[in-house]
C-alpha cells in the first residue's frame, strides 16, 4: 500500500472519530462541531418532522375512526328513538280510538256490539269499502251498522268466515235512513254517499215543507229496522231543492273520519223502533 493511500485512510479514520466524539458531545472541536451541526441537524430535524407528521396522521386517522364509530352509534340511537316514538304514537292513536269506542258502548247499553279492526282497504276506491277481522264467527250479518269514533262509518256488505266487507257511508251504494235531530224539525230522508273526493254525503227525499238548516245534526232514523235510531251520521253543510223541485236535499259532512278508520264496533243487536200499524191507529181514532 502506498504512503499516500495510508495517509488518506488514517485521515478519514481520524475525521470519523472526531465526528463521533462531537456528536456524542465528549469533545469540543468548534469547526468540526459546526460541520457536524450543518450536516446532522437538518437530517435530525427532517426525521423529527417526519415523526411528528406520522404521529399527526396516525392521530388524525385514529380520531376519524372514533368519530365515525360515534356517528354510527348516534345514528343507530336516533333510529331506535324514532322507531320508539312512532310505536308510541301508534299505540296512543289506537288507544284513543279504543277509548272512544268504549265510551260509545257504555253510553248505548241497549246495543250489542262486536269490536273489530280494519285489516284492508279497497284499493280501487279508498272511500268505497274496508275489510274487518270479524265475520260469521262473531255473528255478523249484512246491513249491520258499523261505528267508528261514535259515528256511523258504514254497513256490513259481505260476510265471510273470519272477516267481513264494510260498505262505507261515503259509497254511492250505501243508503241509510236518516232524520234531523232538531226537535222543531225531525225531517226524515235517506243519506247516500256522493262518491266525490271531498267525502260528503247527500240526504235525499226530504219533503219540500220540512225545516232543514245549516249545521243541523243528522242521525239514523231507525225506520228501516236494520240499524238503531239516533246513531250520529253528520251535520248539514248546505240545503237546496232537488232537480225536480218537489223535494229537498242536503249536503252532509260525515262525522266518522273515514280516511283514518282503524277500530270499529259492529252493532249486532238492538231494540228496534216500535212499528205502528196505521190501520190499527186509524181504527182507534174512530
Description:
Helix content is 38%, strand content 28%. The protein is an alpha+beta fold and 286 residues long. The strands form two sheets. A six-stranded antiparallel β-barrel has the order 1-2-5-4-3-12. The protein is rod-shaped, with a radius of gyration of 45 Å. The N and C termini lie far apart (163 Å).
In brief, what are we looking at here?
The chain has 3 helices and 12 strands; from the N terminus they run ααββββββββββββα.
Could you name the key traits of this structure?
3 helices; 12 strands; alpha+beta; 286 residues; six-stranded antiparallel beta barrel
Mean pLDDT: 78
Fraction of residues in helices?
A: 25-40%
Outline, from the CA principal axes? rod-shaped
User: Structural class per helix/strand content?
Assistant: alpha+beta
Give, in spatial order, the strands making up the sheet with the most strands: 1-2-5-4-3-12
The percentage of residues in β strands lies in 25-35%
SSE sequence, one letter per element: HHEEEEEEEEEEEEH
Q: Total number of helical segments?
A: 3
Task: Report the count of strand segments.
Answer: 12
How are the SSEs ordered, and which strands pair?
Blueprint: H1 3-24, H2 30-107, E1 112-121, E2 129-132, E3 145-148, E4 151-159, E5 164-168, E6 175-180, E7 188-193, E8 201-207, E9 217-220, E10 232-241, E11 247-254, E12 263-269, H3 278-285
Antiparallel strand pairs: 1-2, 1-12, 2-5, 3-4, 3-12, 4-5, 6-7, 6-9, 7-8, 8-11, 9-10, 10-11
